[in-house]
Queue: 2 jobs
Job 1
Amino acid sequence: MKNTPAETANQKSASASSLEAHIKWLRSKNQALSRELEQQKFKTSMLEQKLFIHYKSGLPNHQCLDRDIQALLCQAVKERQDHSKLPTENSPIGFSAMPKCRKIAVLIVRLDNKYDMVVKTLKTAISEWVLYQIGVRIGECVQPGERLYHTKDDEYVVILSNFASPSHLKGRLSTIYDAVIKPHIFSGHHLHLGCNIGVSLFPQHGQNKSAMLHSADIAMSQAVLHRKPWLFFEDTMRNSAVEKMELQSHIIKALELQSSWEANEQFSIFYQPQVQIGPVVNGVSRIHHVDAEVLIRWKHPQKGMIAPDKFIPLAEETGLILPIGNWIMFKAIEQLENWEGSPMEHVTLSINISPRQFADQQLMDNLVAMLHRKPSLKNRLKLEITETSLMDDPEKSIQRLRYLNKMGLRFALDDFGKGYSSLNYLTELPLHTLKLDRAFISNVHENPADQAIVRAVVFLAKRLKLKLICEGIETSSQLQMLQKQGCRCFQGYYFSKALSLGDFTRFIQQTTERPMVGTPQ
Ligand code: G
Ligand code: G
Ligand code: MN
């Protein structure tokens, strides 16, 4: 059956309008799709930004550094190779006519531990603002074509290339250093942060990413260690870094063996006598009482004795001081328990507590638990702490000392007078003992200024009801002079170096209440 013309026309217009509707639908679909695509692109670029930007400063981050420095150094190495193929100085063109070889300096700028204090004590917004500010300040020192990255919270990396000579580069380092350490001022407070900068140079100190960054990092650690604003990498630094790593692995090995079998023990504890001397009567004085400072000794099977001066600072730096410290504490407590019921039970043992140990909540918790378990140890254990341990967070330190003191622990302030002793907090701290640093002792017999200091400290200790121990007595003339100033307690090679358990026990038996050899007149 055929359609009428009217029907055909109707059908045509119907299909035209449905086509139009379809096209419209397709268009809107298309628009939606391209909107979605735009959004996806935006999201991707945001993600990329997040991936390559440090969110606290808005600066390129370590991922970005990795990518850029690799490319930059490849380019520089290639330039050098091309350069070396060009005619040399003797050639008719002449070397000076060639473009200069590219110079690159990689700087690692690390904020000092005052930044950690800002993080611990002030609001997050302030520490983030400080990081942002530092980024802006370094950014102002960076010239076109040079780069700045914010790699870790407390670390920035700068790549400099615009410098004509070493002295020019030093000038630029000085500008960057000054910019970082300039105080931050907010709500009337001045916040002083320090920093240390390690510098590696291309091509002398490395020709690839990891060598350049590693060299700068070693130089930065050395700058921290030697308290220098900045240091350039030197080959000898690498040796000391390797040595440190070796020493660190030896410590770890020794700790592992320590816990496995007693015969394998490389560490041991020694006891340096702290003597209390009675007044001089008829030209004779006697040692009334002996306590001891516990000092660690390390005998390595191949290397022999390794001095604590050599490994304790490294252990402190790496955190290994915590397991070492726990072991020392365990040994000392074990010894105190063994002495119970014997004449040795009147000996107080003093243990050195490093700043990192003092800050460690776990160690403090262990001590408290141990004192709960063994109340008989109260007043037989003393902890020697230095001012550095207290200064990080004085308020918290005071609270902590007071709490532990209530639990029955005693405290000695070690190396007193060596740092910036702030006398006002001496009254706040629940101290039992002051240990006068040996710096005041070495010339005390001939130096009136040292004698005056000792007299003042004796007076101070008396007024504050603190026991005073003079450290580092090496000669009888030092001892005589100190006795004249009113000192009664001493520690030093004149009496004895640190002794093994057997020797220490004999020392007590042989010296207590006997007239002293070389007694001062
Ligand atoms: O022991 P002298 O023996 O050489 O010790 C050198 C340094 O190592 C000293 O400053 C001393 O305080 C530190 N030291 C020694 N033994 C210990 C210890 O058992 N713990 C801690 N934290 N430091 C120690
Ligand atoms: O206060 P400190 O914990 O740093 O003291 C322990 C350190 O002092 C150990 O290294 C110990 O060997 C050392 N020492 C002990 N007596 C003397 C001494 O009479 N003279 C010197 N120079 N060092 C000593
Ligand atoms: Mn000490």
Note: The longest helix spans residues 5-52.
Job 2
Amino acid sequence: MSTCKICNHNLESVINFGEMPISNRYVTDPGISDEYTYVLEVAFCPSCYMVQLVNCVEPTEMFNDEYAFYSSTSSGMEKHFKEQADEIIHFNDDMERPFVVELGCNDGIMLKHIATAGISHLGVEPSANVADIAITNGVNVAKIFFNVESADQIKKEYGAATVICGSNVTCHIEDINSVFEGVSHLLSDDGIFFFEDPYIYDIVSKHSFDQIYDEHIYYFSALSVKNLAERHGLELYDVKFHEVHGGEARYYIRRKSGESNDVTVSVQKCLDKEKSINLHKIEGYKEFKDNVDKVSSDLKQILVDLKAQGHEVVGYGATSKSTTLLKYAGVDNSLIKFISDTTPTKINKFTPGTHIPIKPYEAFINECPEYTLLLAWNHKNEILEKESNYRNNGGKFITFFPEVGVE
Ligand code: TYD
């Protein structure tokens, strides 16, 4: 029986996806015989409500000098992080000694704006290749993992932080109690900690199970974050939602004021919304599993049917997410000719586990396929706008959440 990484209570299994490769480890040889795999299983803690992976991959297997994820791959993400930076700058207006710490600053997509504003800051980024890009962008970076020890070092060197933040990183860190302990140690008395990650409410209601992969160890809700914060003398006081990465929640946390267990109106609303779809009970996740299995089999079926009718299908966006989707649905190079992607380090490699070739964007333009599987569905609006000519000329996108369709 597996136990919760936060409170040690017995976990209840939600879905066991079986053997999976590392989602961001694109292979150079499609005939590879020793590809690293682990069992991807997601489970629910009925005590603290945290949804989490049962087996975690070593961080050094995922976040290293070959880490293929770059934040600055879309104009939507640039806009999102500029807005986030503006919010931080505004918050620091009243602070005597502003100091911003970003966990996992990636290529500096957000912190470069803080640097430009002349605010003292530090990006904590263990993946050296993306950290080096952040440094080139004028960002002050420490190439380390964030935990209680590194938080102490940062505090000794720079003083307390008025803002600690992290986007798409908190859910990556297995020892999350250490992160919260570190935050509690490093945060100034009037400071705030906020983080954003894929929101389990969106995942369950959109059936978007491709969000479940090695890097995403935790699938947060206000229900689980409220408990987690309270374990560390902190309180969740606000939650905001946005559409990047397919639906994320941003959790705002501060030092717990007073003894009461009062929750703010916005947090209470969010807790009620989550309870309305049973995210505090295993029952809510059982229905999710049925929906996941239906999307997987419908997706495979439409691709098999299109192939039988002589149509060729390509993929758009070799996302990390696609790894779970393609592998679990059993979609490989026999059904998808190639996937086009704009990330230079992914091009001419093959998708993990399913070994579909990754080609540059020009291959999509030249091929002008009849059908395109929209794997980067989280950028749907941007891509549909960009590819309006393709669609006007009869090209069709296959989408799959909340159900499989063609548009
Ligand atoms: P991303 O949104 O970061 O998702 P994940 O976290 O699951 O990897 O990945 C988007 C991928 O899609 C990235 O490899 C870049 C690619 N992409 C394109 O090829 N063309 C586009 O127009 C966009 C927006 C993304």
Note: The pocket of thymidine-5'-diphosphate is lined by residues 69, 73-74, 317-321, 341-343, 346, 376, 378-379, 382-383, 386 (CB under 6 Å).
